[in-house]
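User: Hey, quick favor. My workstation is busy. Could you predict this chain's structure for me?
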Amino acid sequence: MKPILLELAGIQSYREKQAVDFERLCQGGVFGIFGPTGSGKSSILDAMTLALYGRVERAPKGTQGILNGAENKLSVALTFEMSGAGERLRYRVERQYKRAGESAVHGALCRLIELSPEGERVLADKQSEVDAEVERLIGLTMTDFTRAVVLPQGKFAEFLTLAGKDRRQMLQRLFRLERYGDALAARLSARSDGVRMRLKETEAEQLGLGDASPEALAAATERLASARAEAARLRALLTETEAAHEALGRRREREIELRRLEAQWEALARQAPAIAEQEAEAARLERAASALPAVRDADEAERELAARTGEREGAQAASAAQTARAETAAAAWEAAQSESGAQEPGLIQRLERLEQAVQLEKEARVWQAQWTEATGILAQDEQRGQALEERFAHTGDRLRQARDKQLRLRAEWEALQPRAEASS
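Assistant: No problem, here it is.
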């Protein structure tokens, strides 16, 4: 910490505001503060202590002891600089106090300000916060500060007679060695604990070992060799046993599979008659399916018969007409015979028509015979087609079911046959 500027007013003999510029004083190197007793030399150091820590131990009645008797308030402001890690930071701590009655002084203002080229920034504005932040920045408590930096009159001997522990702690805080000391102490403590733990473990192991004489060691070595030989024998036996167990497991799996295949074989053997019956039924159905063309021929014959029936009906109508004409012609012939020669030309024409009627009658008889034959064939085909349709309708579904079951059984049989041969 480097002081830069101290401003004070109302402290001891300094009733009016005074300023101490340490930068100007330090331009020539070391400087000193000289004057007769009571001129205010120690008051400058008290003002610095009051600004930083908010109290002065040597003053009677605390802060009230350094308040000028003719004043009702005092103020102090210290600007200081902290350097480290390649940078310099400036701060200003300000405090004001007012008299409250005959024997009390109360704080009116307390704040810590960071000074930078960008401007001022208040870091703390409460007394407890300012005290803690200043102690953190400087790294010294008030006791350390008054022992090592600002030695009040008559306190130098106390610094020299500090005990080792107190002096060490003060020097650690003064030079900020706590982080090194704490880390080193933590490492030493951890290492000590580790060594202590290993020592206890070694002692426990030693107690567990018992007798460690050469004779006991030789006996232990012999037992170890015997145990190793026995362990090797047992490992070999275990390997052999595991191999035999694995072989037995494989054999058991094969036996289980063989029994399963035999059961399937017996089930298939029991189903053999049903399969044969289904195969025979399938053969019959196949023959029935082969008769389908005959059914189609019957349908075609029926259609042809219908066509011929129509033709026959037309022929019958034509024959009836021709018969009627023939009868008419016969009647005309008989009439013509009675009329004789005068009507001979007309009779000749009628005779020709009569011959045509006879010819048509012959053709009608031929058509009648063909129609009768076709009617018989059609009746037979209808009976056969009806029987085939009934049988086909009855066995069609069974044929499909039998074929599906036959294919499924053949697939199962083909899948089981290699495994059955392998197991046998």
